[in-house]
Amino acid sequence: MSGKNKSAYPFYIIAGSLVCLVALSMVRNTFSLQHYTSRPLDMLADVRKDEPADSTAIAVEIPTDTSAAISPADTVALAGIPDPDHDHDFASYTGILNYAVHDTAVSGLEHFLSALNELKTGKRKKVRIAYFGDSMIEGDLITEDLRDSLQILFGGSGVGFVPITSVVAGFRTTINHTFSKDWKDYSYKELPPASIPLGMSGHTFVPGESSWTRYAPVHKHNLDKFEEVSLLYGPASGGNISVNDKQYALSGRAPVNTLSWKQDSAHPNVNIKWAGGSSMPFYGVCFEADNGVYVDNYSFRGISGIELGKLSKQIVEQMQTEHPYDLVVLHYGANMLWKPELTDYSWYGRPMKRVMDSLRNDLPNTSFLVITTADKSYRKGGNWMTAPGVPALVKTQHELAKEHGAAYWNLYAAMGGEGSMVQWVEGDPALANKDYTHFNRQGAAKVGALLYKAMMDEYKMEHQ
Amino acid sequence: MIDLNKLLETLLYSKKDPILFNSAFFFYFFAVFLLCYLAAARSKRYRVAIYTIFSLYFFYKACGPYVGLILLSAIVDFNLSRWIYNSEKPGFRKGLMTFSIILNLGLLFYFKYMNFFIGVGNDLNVWHFNLIRDIILPIGISFYTFENLSYTIDVYKREIKPVDNFMDYLFFLSFFPKLMMGPIVRAADFIPQISQPYELDSEDIGKGMYLIISGLFKKVIISDFIYQNFVQYIFDDPSKHTGLECLLGVYGYALVIYCDFSGYSDMALGIARWTGFKIPPNFESPYQSASITEFWRRWHISLSSWLRDYLYIPLGGNRKGKVRQYINLWLTMLIGGFWHGASWNFIFWGGLHGTALAVDKVRIDAQKKRGGAPAGWKGTVLKIGGIFLTFHFVCFCWIFFKASTFHDSWALINQIVHDFQPEVWLELYNGYTMVFWVMLGAFILHFLPKRSENFAERTMARFPVWGSIAVMAFFIYILVQVKSSDTMLPIYLQF
């Protein structure tokens, strides 16, 4: 080759670097530096023979036998109530499983279903659900559809509880909600001082000098007007507010107090303004009618459910007096799956057990429903697949439900089990977002419908 | 250790992973190609044959049986152009050219727009047809159709002489570096280079190396990274994000689409350069533009100049009065938008750019009357303001370009206007630290003067072979560390 013409250079460069990289691929080429582990380089990945050892490393064996984790005394079913685990595999059953234990007054959905029946037969006026969850239910996702279906069958109109301010107000389509920026928002993330209790939603709001919040109905079935409105507030010592320009002095001293009014049909909106006086905490506003079913959406982004332990006994008990619940739903999962291949969830099960112990204790006559994590995919070797942590977490959540005599609904199984999130994301129409974790509106509507159906299957079995 | 079946499988077309410049397969392909090409370097005929065979195989790897389309259109256009050129009867020539245009656009229309128009007709109750199932847009068709058209039209206008050798034409059309995503190359620029001997100097080596490395860097390290780790979440569900996130998402997308497309173009240019072909640049730091007119001179240059020569000027250009000129500009951009895909979003996007170009024309005309742009500090302020304004207008248009529906576009704009929530910045920064640094770095790189590019090219030109090998191998190792395991198809592959 002449010194001038370098036409062979591209070949030298490409072939040379290829040889280097292939040679590197032949040897172990990963290294770790503190928290960083380099990815392996393998120029031959596409043509290598599959090594069987590799694939078994991902699939973690998850024993379905749960007896080891639970003390024998807890698992003895009440006389006459069969253990549903004898008939169904909790890991794949798509309906609701009702568990019972000795020391709790109500088991499974029993109380909730009979409350629904009493409502249907005119023996009671309201049935309320406290639906706790994380970002999966933000903006009234899932709860909106569940509420709508229940209200069609059992009556009621209104969105239930709405906090004073919300990061997802703009996203929520079941109410128009605007507010001033000067509310002080205490929450699980920034706990209030000892004198101020933390509200049931995980938030407590303290007004600034000119704080206000405004709610307007939306053009949707059952949500197009306000009827019975109640403001939930904390211990007051002489605070004043105006509601649609009408002045109120708030005097309740309990951890939770209610100021209720019938909405004047001439004023469709609710304008609440802080009108001075001694500073005090507020929780939110409830929109209901004088009877029917209500689903309160208690969403809190980024939490796992353990945070509910920060709710005081006083708040929970007082709430049950002012605004009683017949069913508490605990719907968590996405935030425990930050390490997709982690399959030991005892670190979650232990503190969550304490949380459920105390909630169960504070609300002895309320039914509990544990909803498992949804499917969540992660990328492995170029493909999206169900994180091994998902079935492991489902198992832990099942133990929690069984130990506490709660009802249990396996959302992962109801979605379709392994690999379902991939189908939900890639389906047409898409039902979930590209993070392979969150549902979009259509997906949430589908989950709401699945949950409603599961509940109604139980209801029909008991009361029809 | 090597599975022969798998090896065979990777050599065949797979719909799931078409060949891309940033795939490992291409690396092997390129090495084998260069070896064969080098062996054939002394004879033009063999060179063309080798390059064409590898190009057709490349195309087969990209879109399977549709490789037939390019063969077919090469045969048809090669012969039509010769007949046009050799005939002296104006009517016959015109007829043949019209036939060629109808054939080429018809092909494009069938694959790209058929279902769109069936749908529009159904919605308006003009007709009722079922959508045609299983139409897949053959990769590259939007690009090579335009190349065929410009060739036939140039021959018709007797601006160029048609090629004598069919292989030369097939080679021009199938030339693999630009086959899938452009740039749209003109036959007049390309064909003369075929007969030149294959010789490279150190400038060619340095420039090619720089283009390949910077192209990979833009595509894999900037574009794919920002898109996968941030931008896609925003556009997936804009109403779930704060205005600040949405705005940053739009800035991110501006980088994503630029780095994706220009990165791929750079790689094409670099590969072409290394094999002895010079293709004019397709992008010239477009976000440095101080006006929308300038932007379109720097963005996807091969398309905008094609539209100028074969659409805007035939429409009358600026020869039929001011009003007609504005309308022509607008219409050209509207059609340019439609070229990107059969959807109202693209049409609206094109319409926005067309309107802006027409308005900018008014400004330019007024400025000319006043005797040119102001100089001194006033000029500098105007220029900076212009860059800021142009960038934001282009970003605004990207919202419609990217969002899957109008509803999503408005939802995103609504978030930015009504729900900005600047107080979340720290939380956001902590969540996307790496992404934001990459974005900042990318913007800084984009605004570096041309000098720095030249410097990098000259430096690479001076490397000894082993130095180049070390740099390339090290760079690819870094790419593997950063790149997402998902194959990210280039955005312009869909157009």
Written overview of the protein:
The complex is a heterodimer of chains A (464) and B (495). Chain A is an alpha+beta fold and 464 residues long. Helix content of chain A is 28%, strand content 22%. Chain A has helices at residues 9-26, 52-58, 72-75, 110-120, 143-154, 313-322, 346-362, 389-403, 411-415, 420-426, 441-463, and strands at residues 32-33, 36-37, 96-98, 126-133, 160-163, 176-179, 184-187, 203-206, 212-216, 228-233, 239-243, 246-250, 257-262, 270-277, 282-288, 292-299, 327-331, 367-371, 377-380, 383-386, 407-409. In chain A, the strands form six sheets. Chain A has a six-stranded mixed sheet with strand order 3-21-18-17-4-16, sandwiched between helices. In chain A, strands 6-9-14-11-12 form a five-stranded antiparallel sheet, with no helix packed on it. Chain A is globular, with a radius of gyration of 27 Å. The termini of chain A are far apart. Chain B has 21 helices and no strands. The longest helix of chain B has 35 residues, at 202-236. Chain B has two domains: 10-194, no CATH class; 202-494, no CATH class. Chain B starts with a helix and ends in a 13-residue tail after the last helix. By secondary structure, chain B is an all-alpha fold. Chain B is globular. The interface between A and B is large, with 43 and 55 residues.
